[in-house]
Write a structure and sequence with these properties.
The protein is of the alpha/beta class. The protein has 9 helices and 9 strands. The chain folds into 2 domains: about 180 residues, HUPs (Rossmann fold, 3-Layer(aba) Sandwich); about 110 residues, 2-Layer Sandwich (GMP Synthetase, Chain A, domain 3). The two termini are about 35 Å apart.
Length: about 325
């Protein structure tokens, strides 16, 4: 179906569902941004866009999101809720529990914002893989997405999901058609770096993961730009709670492990690992271990397809 027809139908659907103030979480990712632009076109000033700084975002993410929404001409309220997110994740190591804690914290933030603007509706950028992987009915739970299986039961808002039946490639096509600059951004999980920090989520471990992710993203983008490799669909680093003995200079180090992940995919439902050049992987490894000296002393590369693995580690 023509992309403009899909956009028009989504806007009409939103207009038929929303008759009062609506609020939306805008992470800057392609799904929530497309949902926000569609909702803004549908209901205009009845929409309140909120960016929640969870403390779990990538390098420069908050500034980039603010700039992007400013260029789109959409007002964006920024809420720093990082302390409450870290408190809720203290001691939590199970991936499903992490996602549910994060889903609940997002809702609690929006309940506070709801009281301010008296919103009746919550617009979400849920897409088909989110609810498929979150299980239900005869479907097994692969992982609970924070905006689906991670939602608490006592949500005092009517949920509206304009992208629920679409896949990532379709949403990306809509973003290009709408002139959204994030249309070519690689996917970033809603729970942020919390699902790239395996084990307990602490500010220090998140900072290490953030730095490793920044190095991986920067080096792979540069290599693709120089023609050394194809740009993967998604590429990042995850911090593993696996310690091993290493050495920096003459000093023994008992550091954690970073895994580098890069995959090619169309819609995220399946993926193949990217065959990155060995010299590029060596450069990434050296920069990560030098930058995180004393914290990380081993870097590995994930060569698992989806299936059997998922793209993210949690």
């Amino acid at each position: 179906m023509d992309t403009q027809v899909l956009i028009d139908e989504a806007i009409e659907s939103l207009q038929s569902q929303i008759d009062d103030t609506a609020i939306i979480a805008c992470s800057g990712g392609i799904d929530s941004t497309v949902a926000a632009v569609l909702a803004h076109k549908a209901v205009g000033s009845m929409l309140r866009c909120v960016y929640v700084d969870t403390g779990l975002m990538r390098e420069g993410e908050s500034e980039e999101v603010e700039s992007m929404f400013s260029e789109l001409g959409i007002d964006l309220r920024v809420v720093d809720a990082s302390q409450s997110f870290f408190r809720s994740l203290s001691g939590v190591v199970d991936p499903e529990e992490k996602r549910k804690e994060i889903g609940e914290q997002f809702i609690r933030v929006f309940e506070e914002e709801q009281r301010v603007c008296e919103a009746k509706y919550l617009v979400q950028g849920t897409i088909a893989p989110d609810w498929i992987e979150s299980g239900g009915g005869e479907r097994d739970v692969i992982k609970s997405h924070h905006n689906v299986g991670g939602l608490p039961e006592d949500v005092d808002l009517d949920i509206v999901e304009p992208l629920r039946e679409f896949y990532k490639d379709e949403v990306r096509a809509m973003a290009r058609h709408l002139g959204i600059q994030s249309s070519e951004r690689q996917p970033f999980p809603g729970p942020g770096l919390a699902v790239r920090v395996l084990g307990e989520v602490t500010p220090d471990r998140v900072a290490s993961c953030r730095e490793a992710c920044h190095i991986v993203e920067k080096r792979i983008r540069e290599a693709a730009s120089d023609g050394r490799c194809d740009l993967p669909w998604q590429y990042f680093a995850a911090l593993l709670p696996v310690r091993s003995v290493g050495v920096h200079g003459d000093v023994r180090v008992h550091g954690e492990t970073v895994v580098v992940r890069a995959v090619a995919s169309l819609d995220g439902m399946s993926a193949r690992y990217s065959d990155l050049p060995q010299d590029l992987l060596a450069e990434i490894s050296t920069e990560i271990t030098n930058s995180l000296k004393g914290q990380v002393n081993r870097v590995v590369y994930d060569i698992t397809h989806k299936p059997p693995g998922t793209i993210e580690w949690e």
